[in-house]
Design a protein that fits this description.
single chain; 290 residues; 14 helices
Length: 290
């Protein structure tokens, strides 16, 4: 068994996409090394990762994680890799802070996105309306939108899929597959919005929302497909930053953070750390939440 396969056997809880990413990253790193990761020196690994990253701090951080985990799993020394990881962490934090400040001045307001979404409904662009409605109201990621539309709970028994179950007066959104499933478990959201109900009932049952057919979209195409359906080709990540920027000025910021923590499936502390893009007011939890 190769060092990669042995490592992967310890990651059975990870999603197929994560395992696929491990294999792709390993292949790229290994191609620049004379030996396996465990048989290579740390400086050799650091140089290979640096070459792959082409000066991009985020890419270097991503590539660095796999050799770190593999060597750590097999009991090999990782002190130099850990030192570089610490350096990259500081560089990423500096970059992220600058990025958040830049984003706060360039992203549209929540009102613009809400008006855009309402206009989609008025124009009867129901597919685009539904996708924008779900992302801006619940702050979810791309994978959460990859849903099969069905007319009954009995048609939503596959626990590896996401569903919109259309009932007479509400829609039940079951999210069984998403990025942080292992940490937060399956999600269920009930939607009773009348415009949403009207829109979803125009789409055929037993079809996938993103394709409009019985064929699911390849996961590699999710980001591009959804981006084309959002305002000005923004990403779902941009939409979430708009949400966070908006609630930053609300009197019930803490309650809204808790709400989006649940709907997105993100830890409360992560929301505080990564998604505040407003320069107007710092998000600080109430003393009771500290």
């Amino acid at each position: 068994m190769t060092e990669l396969e042995e490592f992967i056997t310890t990651k059975s809880q990870n999603s197929p996409q994560t395992i696929k990413n491990y294999r792709t990253q390993y292949k790229s790193i290994r191609a620049l090394l004379d030996n396996d990761i465990n048989k290579s020196t740390q400086p050799e690994i650091l140089n290979a990762v640096k070459e792959l990253s082409n000066g991009n701090v985020s890419n270097e951080w991503t590539y660095m994680n796999l050799p770190f985990m593999i060597r750590q799993h097999h009991g090999y020394n990782v002190d130099l890799i850990q030192k570089r990881r610490d350096e990259l962490k500081k560089l990423r934090e500096t970059h992220d802070e600058k990025y958040k400040i830049d984003k706060s001045t360039t992203l549209p307001s929540m009102r613009i996105i809400q008006d855009f979404t309402k206009q989609l409904y008025k124009n009867k662009e129901y597919k685009k309306y539904i996708i924008n409605f779900l992302i801006i109201n619940y702050g979810v990621r791309n994978k959460d939108i990859d849903v099969l539309i069905v007319g009954s709970a009995k048609d939503a028994k596959d626990e590896t899929r996401n569903y919109l179950i259309v009932k007479s007066t509400e829609v039940e959104w079951r999210i069984n597959e998403y990025k942080t499933l292992q940490s937060h478990g399956s999600k269920k959201i009930i939607i009773k919005s009348k415009p949403f109900m009207e829109a979803i009932k125009t789409l055929p049952l037993n079809t996938w929302l993103l394709t409009g057919t019985e064929t699911i979209l390849k996961e590699s195409g999710l980001g591009t497909t959804i981006k084309r359906l959002l305002y000005n080709n923004l990403t779902e990540g941009d939409y979430f930053k708009i949400i966070m920027n908006d609630i930053n000025s609300k009197p019930n910021t803490t309650q809204l953070l808790e709400y989006y923590s649940k709907t997105r499936g993100t830890g409360y502390d992560n929301l505080l750390k990564y998604y505040d893009v407003s320069k107007k007011q710092e998000i600080v939890p109430d003393d009771t939440d500290m």
